[in-house]
Amino acid sequence: MGRVSSACFISWMYLVYISSGFATTIEPASEFTTFNNIMENATEWMTDFSDIESKFSFRTSEEPEDDLCYIVPGQPETIKECNFNPDTKTFIVIHGWTVTGMFESWVPKLVTALYDREPTANVIVVDWLSRAQQHYPTSAAFTKLVGRDVAKFVNWLQAEIDYPWEKLHLLGYSLGAHVAGIAGLLTKHKVNRITGMDPAGPSFEYADAQSTLSPDDALFVDVLHTNTRGSPDRSIGIQRPVGHIDIYPNGGTFQPGCDLQNTVLMVATSGLRNMDQIVKCSHERSIHLFIDSLLNQEQESMAYHCSSKDSFNKGMCLSCRKNRCNKVGYGVNKIRTRRSSKMYMKTRDVMPYKVFHYQVKVHFFGKTKLSYTDQPMKISLYGIHGEKENIPYIMPALNTNTTMSFLLTTDTDIGELLMVKLLWEKDTLISWPWWNPDTFHIRKLRIKSGERQSKIVFSAKEDEFSYLSRGGEAAVFVKEKETQSSRKNQRLHKLKMHGSSFKQSTE
Ligand SMILES: *[C@@H]1O[C@H](CO)[C@@H](O)[C@H](O)[C@H]1NC(C)=O
Ligand SMILES: *[C@@H]1O[C@H](CO)[C@@H](O)[C@H](O)[C@H]1NC(C)=O
């Protein structure tokens, strides 16, 4: 008897332990077990449409804001009624957590942009607003059930009209990105693509791949991370990569134009209705970057593979060799690597977001040993198509006889560079005497363009050296007549003309 009751006690303890485990991973226990059953038997649950709570609104380009026609799983006539086009692509848009319980203003914008790019496509908006309006952890846990709803819908639609899997593209924002991932995991075949727009971080950062968006959920998974500021457990957007390609615009932490000053101004001009924009600005930027890629095809942003944000900010990662760079958003090249590729880019603060990236490398010679930190510089770039003057840059370190590499961007294409000016600004707080002797000698300046994939060497305009002094005149550099690339071409030319005879002579 005593043995039995102690066994009972142990199993009771075990239960407490398990359920406390559930509590921390925010899984309502019943939902979790249902989900595991789903995973075990992939056919039975799929044809049961009675428990689907999500709605599938077929939106049109004429009325992108309105739910005029729902496609209902199990009711094949609704496919025709909504004028679903079986011969074209289908985009399934999935929203995230909501405070208001209404569709946010980005939904019709994304629908419009998708139709602008693919006029004959089908755009379906998933409505899971009632489950998305709960206390956040509850809504986060609901992503599994909503993902299952979407998988059922997709499986049914596919089977009903023999719709090609490769025409399916799911797009999810915030919690919706994880919904898309779970849906992709549960469909009979892999869908072509899932785009995750700043997938939600809280309760997902440390979750397993089955509970979050992951590269296994579609043939190709691309992700934009735009609001990953703070420690991993506090970040609004998930920090770790969850796709084949994970792009971190502006480092992924926080987006330009989203600072308090800007958003307060926006609220002042457009009213308190947009108050929530202050909170969501960076998070939602992921969607607007994707919309930008749909609408501004001729101004496609580029992102570059890099080991870290810091290396990218030093301009070290602007290479396009071996798929190290890619187009951002809709036109991405679907490169699948085993490990997910972290990519970086800078953007403007408004659409079109594209900027042009440059790596500047400069060696500071000097007779005396000088050492500075955080020096204000102004750099002017002059190109064939225009110029960009006085780009501010704070040089983190400035030391004698060292080489600095840094990243500069321009928001317009100024074409191939011809001339560069470098100005070392005077410290505004301290007034330096006119005879300030702090001067560096610069012989050459090397600039690599990410967008053009060119490397150009600039040399001092007047002399062997240009002089950079604090608060002094700008140091001026002009393009060298013979650039590295033309020297390389000469070598190549030589090889082409004499290569075979060279080979013969060595044999
Ligand atoms: C899954 O469901 C099918 C159809 O109901 C059934 O035949 C099969 O035995 C089930 N498989 C498992 C592992 O439960
Ligand atoms: C820097 O290098 C140059 C030549 O490379 C040398 O003449 C000069 O003394 C060096 N300066 C210092 C501070 O070491």
Automatic annotation (TrEMBL):
InterPro entries recorded: AB_hydrolase_fold, Lipase, Lipase_LIPH, Lipase_N, Lipo_Lipase, PLAT/LH2_dom, PLAT/LH2_dom_sf, TAG_lipase
The protein's assembly and partners: Homodimer. Interacts with APOC2; the interaction activates LPL activity in the presence of lipids.
Molecular function terms, GO-annotated: apolipoprotein binding; heparin binding; lipoprotein lipase activity; metal ion binding
Family: Belongs to the AB hydrolase superfamily. Lipase family.
Keyword vocabulary terms for this entry: Calcium, Cell membrane, Chylomicron, Disulfide bond, Extracellular matrix, Glycoprotein, Heparin-binding, Hydrolase, Lipid degradation, Lipid metabolism, Membrane, Metal-binding, Nitration, Secreted, Signal, VLDL
Gene Ontology CC annotations of this record: chylomicron; plasma membrane; very-low-density lipoprotein particle
Residues engaged in binding Ca(2+): D217
Region (Disordered): 481-507
CDD domains recorded: Pancreat_lipase_like
Protein name in UniProt: Lipoprotein lipase
Class of the enzyme per the UniProt entry, highest EC level: hydrolase
Transmembrane segments: none
Active site, renumbered: S174, D198, H283
Gene label: LOC107561902
Ranges annotated as biased composition (Basic residues): 488-497
Keyword Membrane: yes
Subcellular location: Cell membrane; Secreted; Secreted, Extracellular space, Extracellular matrix
